[in-house]
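Thread title: Can someone regenerate the structure for this chain?

I was given the following input by a collaborator and told the matching structure tokens would be attached. They weren't. Posting the sequence so someone can regenerate them.
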Amino acid sequence: MRTSLLLLGLITISFMSCKEEKEYLLYVGTYSVENSKGIYCYDYNPDNGHFSFRNVTPDNENPSYLAISPNGQNLYAVSEIEDYNHMDSGSVTAYKIKDDGELEKINQEATLGKHPAHVSVSPEGKTVVAANYTSGSLSIYNVEKGGALSEARQLIQHTGHGPDSVRQEGPHAHSSLFTADGKFLVSADLGTDKVDFYEYSADSNAYVHAKQGFVQMNPGFGPRHFDFSPDGRFIYVMNEMGSAVTVLQKDSGEYRIIQTLSSIPSDFKGENTGADIHLSKDGRFVYCSNRGHNSIAVFSRNPENGKIEMIQDIPVEGNWPRNFAIGPEGNFLLVANQKSNNITLFSIDKESGKLSFTGVSEEIPSPVCLKFLVR
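Best answer:
Regenerated them for you:
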């Protein structure tokens, strides 16, 4: 009897060990230059941060930005072009993520706007939004059975302009994200210097401006990407043209600007444009990428008042860092360097938040976007 119980215990432990084993994948969106073949998939090791090539999915032109569904079964990729299917439009493609990590195309839909530069999925996985940069609009889709996309059910057209007559002659929607509870859709528009807020209206079956329709950002700063604090009280906006991070605080139900801080050293005299921004999982640190200065800026963050202070700027060991990603376990940060055709790996000191280059640099043609999948 004791032997049988011991055997049962060993089988149970073995089963639990197998069940807890996770698979880590890294997907890379690229531009269709420098011999890029599409969307690349890598195996990722969370213990040392190393990643190794697994496969590549041929895609239409410029699969520059990716989003993975909350259930981990689908990936969505924009095609950053202006003439999809003989229309003044880019496109967004839905894929099934197969067991081996390969992507199987489900369908492809027009964005009804030029050069979509960003795509996101709602927390419950039922809505996909693409941000059309050149046209300054948001395309909204229903997610159907199996992860397929409907035709664009709504097109939100931004209006207005900024003080820079060359870069801000009209709206340029650069990104959009849902709040964690899915109640609001937030968008950063480089052309109008606005962060816009939308909510779903059951009466009109559409997204409409929320009670607070927008926050007017610093003139000529060009908001690009943003991230939320873990508690949702603060939004951290990376300004492309202003090379600065702006902090928005929610007070009495509305957001207001409480701080704007440069993302580059005061003695830097060259040209720079801000790119991506992310918070650490614990919300203690803010990271952003600088193109031109070619660095990652690291800020410490006060969780109580939301304000930040720069504690490090570190070279990315490449040229023109676009998006970057913090590994699922929070131990490493990976940078997609578009013009030098490489992804570089940095370790994160969880106590100080500071980065150290590991010496790992993987060649890949024109990397732009990095997304992790843990399953």
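Helices lie at 2-20.
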